[in-house]
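REQUEST FORM: STRUCTURE PREDICTION
Request ID: SP-0412
Submitted by: Lab K.M.
Chain count: 1
Length (residues): 289
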Amino acid sequence: MKPEIRSAVREIRSDRERGARQLALAALQALRAVAPECSGEEFRECARALALSRPMMAATQNAAAAAWAGYLQTGDAVRATEEAIESIESAADGMAASARRVVPTGSLMTYSYSSSVIELFGRIRPRRVILSEARPLREGLRMARELVGLGISVTLITEAQLALFVHEADAVVVGADTILPEGDLVNKIGTRLLALAARDAGVPFYSVSETLKVAAPSEPVPFAPEQGDPKEVCAEKWLEVRNVYFEATPARLVTAYVTEAGVLDPASVGRFADEAERRWRALMDAAEA
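STATUS: Completed
RESULT:
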C-alpha cells in the first residue's frame, strides 16, 4: 500500500477532534492525492484501507466506497474521487434547504462538535444557541468559539444542566457520526440523555446529516462503543475509569433527520442503507471471497 495512505489511515484512526464529515473528506483527499499514480487494483486497495480506518464512522466507509463506485462507472480514479468530494461539499446546500422547512430560528440547543451543525447555523442564523462543554475533551467549547465567530449568541452550560435548559430551546439540533440502517443515531456519548430530556420536555430533536452517514447493514462491524483514553477523564490509578466516546440514540427519540435529500423520518433511512450496501459490497466482496 502507498505510504501516503498508511499515514492517512493512522491519522484518521487517531483523530479525536474532527467530525465524521471532516474525516470522510480527509479520506477522499488522501485518495485523490494518490489517484493519478494508481492502477485500478491499487486504487481499490487504497479505498479499502481508508474505508476501514474508522469502523464506527459510516461516512468514511461510504465515501471511499462511493469513490470506488465512481471509478467502476468511469474508469477515471481522479474524476471519481473529485465527484465524491463534491457530493459531500454540496450537501450543505440541500441540508440548509431542508432545515428551513422544520428548524425554528429562535433558541436552539446542540451538543458536542459538528461541522454540519456549524455550517447550518451559519446559514439559518438562530437567535441563540445553547450547548454544553461536551467533556472530557470539551468539543462544545470549541464549537462555541466558532459559533461566536459567526456572530451567533451562545450560552455555554455543563452536561448536568442539559435537562434544565432544554426547556428554553425551540428545538434540539445535533450532528451525526453514523445513522444505523434501522434509524438509530450514533453520536457523541450524552446525545441519548439529551434526546430523552427533549422528549420529556416536548422539544423536537433533529439530527443534521448527509445521507452518506447511513451505514450499510454489513459495514463493517455492528455498532460497539468506542473507548478513549481513561486519563482524559481521570488519571487516578486507584479507580476504574471508563471513557466511552459514542452511543446509539434510538430512532424513536429522533424527530427527523435533516438531510440533503429532504427531511426524513428515521424509519425511511433504509433505502439509503440499501444503496450503501451495494457500494460497500462492490468495494469489499472480492477481498473477502
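NOTES: The chain has two domains: 3-89+274-288, 93-269.
Reviewed by: T.R.
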